[in-house]
Amino acid sequence: MKKIFTTTLLCAICTFTFAQTRIGVKAGVTLPTMSSYSTAQSFDGPSEYNFKSTVSFYIGGTIDYPVSERFALQPGLTLTGKGGKTEVFESNFEPNNLFSFQGTYELSTMYLEVPVNAMFNFNLGAGKIFFGAGPYYAFAISGTAKRNGMATSSSITTISSKQDVDFGSNKDYKSGDFGLNFLAGYQLKSGFNIHTGYGLGLTSIDTDGFDETSLKNRVFSVGLGFSF
Prior knowledge:
Strand order of the largest sheet: 1-2-3-4-5-7-8-9
CATH architecture: Beta Barrel
Oligomer: single chain
Order of helices and strands: HEEEEEEEEE
Mean pLDDT: 86
């Protein structure tokens, strides 16, 4: 009798949890940039590049696991664009074989990101306002780097190049990206919502082993979603 009661109770809990669970889809625009810092000396280049935002996109899904009427845990999976654009100056500073480059460097990357957010919501008008935060881990799956500017060696040459980025501990950039998500939005009773978010990278993706360098992702996003 005790086993039957326990089994029935567990089935009821699972049924209630599944009934309350909501699946969501979302998509929108990202405006990624990067935060950089290096202890390199002045003759090696600037200690901090001033990255500007570029434009990319994101698309993904979420699952809401309600803990109470106003609080839920929301894991998800998102394909999201990151990167940034900055002015650069590079030189080998070798008098007999001088080479320098001055122009722009633009990094465009795509990550598979897994966030786990704590979400709060409150009724407001014809729907509800929601906001939340939580950690994320992202894994780079592709990337390109563009250079445009003037190169100087024995002569001055205009350079415009685009190449694929390799990810790994001993390659162009690290593949892993860990940080915090912050998001807020408004959802109608029909399930449609508009939302905005900010991803704050906490780990550097730079692989430079010569200087104490830091290069972290920053991603502002805005988009639309629907919860079933």
